[in-house]
Design brief:
Elements: H1 2-6, H2 10-35, H3 40-48, E1 50-54, E2 59-63, H4 64-90, H5 96-120, H6 138-147, H7 154-178, H8 185-203, H9 209-226, H10 231-238, H11 249-265, H12 276-292, H13 295-319, H14 332-359, H15 371-380, H16 385-395, H17 400-428
Antiparallel strand pairs: 1-2
Helix pairs in contact: 2-6, 2-13, 4-7, 4-10, 4-13, 5-7, 5-14, 6-7, 8-9, 9-10, 11-12, 14-15, 14-17, 15-17, 16-17
């Protein structure tokens, strides 16, 4: 009963992510045009405009782009954490049999680009960019699959989504461990107090949304000041959100019938307003509805649209603008390295370990999926974009040349991987009628 109620309808998830991919593409084009137009100065000035809070005891002043990358993206990572928790407990990753195929694919998709990067990189100054080609952008990837319409079976979309979730887990760990600055452990220790409190409440099935909000802001600020990237706080906080309902669906249905019956019995046909008893029953309905909803599912449902239609497009708009000019200064070896890692590294890694997992009988090829379709998905996995740009900003803080070079490599590699993956999938898939 719990699993049947909690699982998000997959088609709705795919539709939202696909639409987000279209918006991401549009925001990227706008950013590139704006950054290379006569109004390019306004583009740069907008994102560098500082806002925040300043007092004698506390100061939090940041450029707008950092509020996006550290603040809005923390909400995005909170949503990723909710999705990861759901998938681990009741979804496509809740057993080794289900998780093995996308798990092997994700490991290949992270390890091989990493190896390629280290082999191809000859500049010690760009070595920190090794994490850039490891990530896959699920919104863009699903948007490409959507272009293929009925040619792609649902099992392929489930595989890509599960693979991307495992990929996200890897990206979060990489950011937390390798892309955090010198750490103030005292602040981290302090942040564990409200976090532990929320975990204890969650284990007892207690969810207080305003307490989660207040504690969440406090934890975010402590992580920000501690040196660990605050997006990690978003993931940790998500795991403190209860997944279980206070009442099951059958109990809710029975209560609903009683409320309906009572509302009909207390109706006054002579008065065009609700009676006192009817108002009381409606209040009961609100309480009853709150109890049947999973806090995790409710938050995921509410945040998904915000992330898909606002946070990610704003991130793309603020981060994708690379200025091209006659005197531009790019690191071309870094650009080429990232392109190769995203296209060849991802394709070889995902394909090889996927087929290896089937060969050693550690996993089964999803029903109705052809080997060439896996190769197509492996190519599409090279569409890095959101997470890759995010890691590039962390890897090369303050170095505009390396950041812009990384963005050019990410954008170029993602376009090549996306087009190649689309062609392979189109040629290897027949339209499903």
């Amino acid at each position: 009963m719990l699993e049947r109620y909690l699982l998000t309808p997959f088609q709705r998830f795919i539709r939202a992510e696909s639409s987000s991919g279209v918006l991401l593409f549009g925001a990227t084009i706008i950013a590139l045009i704006w950054a290379n137009s006569p109004f390019s100065e306004s583009y740069n000035n907008l994102w560098q405009f500082k806002i925040g809070i300043t007092s004698e005891a506390f100061e939090l002043q940041k450029p707008l782009i950092l509020w996006i990358n550290d603040g809005l993206m923390a909400i995005f990572f909170f949503l990723i954490g909710l999705e990861i928790k759901r998938e681990l407990l009741i979804g496509e990753l809740n057993s080794f049999k289900k998780a093995s195929f996308p798990l092997f694919a994700a490991i290949g998709g992270m390890v091989f680009p990493l190896v390629f990067f280290f082999i191809l990189n000859k500049n010690p100054e760009t070595l920190d960019g090794w994490g850039i080609p490891m990530a896959t952008d699920i919104a863009f990837s699903l948007a490409i699959l959507r272009l293929l319409g009925n040619r792609i079976p649902l099992s392929i979309k489930i595989f890509l989504t599960a693979f991307a979730i495992v990929d996200d887990i890897g990206a979060v760990l990489v950011i937390a461990i390798f892309y955090s600055e010198s750490i103030n452990w005292m602040l981290i220790l302090i942040s564990m107090v409200p976090l532990a409190t929320l975990f204890i409440l969650s284990s007892r099935g207690i969810y207080l949304k305003y307490l989660v909000l207040i504690f969440g802001i406090a934890i975010w600020v402590l992580f920000l000041k501690s040196g660990i990237h605050p997006t990690v706080a978003g993931v940790l906080l998500s795991f403190a959100i209860p997944i279980r309902q206070k009442i099951d669906t059958d109990t809710f249905t029975e209560g609903l019938q009683k409320i309906e019956k009572r509302v009909k019995e207390t109706k006054d046909v002579n008065v065009p307003m609700l009676s006192r008893e009817q108002i009381h029953q409606l209040d009961r309905l609100e309480t009853w509805t709150a109890k049947v909803q999973s806090p995790l599912q409710q938050l995921e449902h509410k945040l998904h649209s915000w992330a898909a239609y606002f946070i990610m497009p704003v991130f793309a708009l603020s981060n994708a603008g690379v200025s091209f000019s006659a005197d531009m200064n790019f690191d071309y070896p870094l650009i080429i390295n990232i392109i190769i890692c995203l296209v060849a590294g991802k394709c070889i890694g995902v394909s090889l370990l996927s087929f290896l997992s089937v060969k050693i009988k550690a996993a089964d090829l999803p029903k109705g999926v052809r080997p060439m379709q896996i190769v197509g998905i492996a190519l599409i996995a090279g569409v890095g974009f959101t997470m890759s740009i995010f890691i590039a900003n962390l890897a090369f803080i303050g170095n505009v040349i390396y950041i812009d070079s990384s963005k050019v490599g990410i954008l170029t590699g993602s376009v090549i991987a996306g087009i190649a993956g689309y062609i392979v999938l189109r040629m290897s898939s027949k339209e499903i009628k």
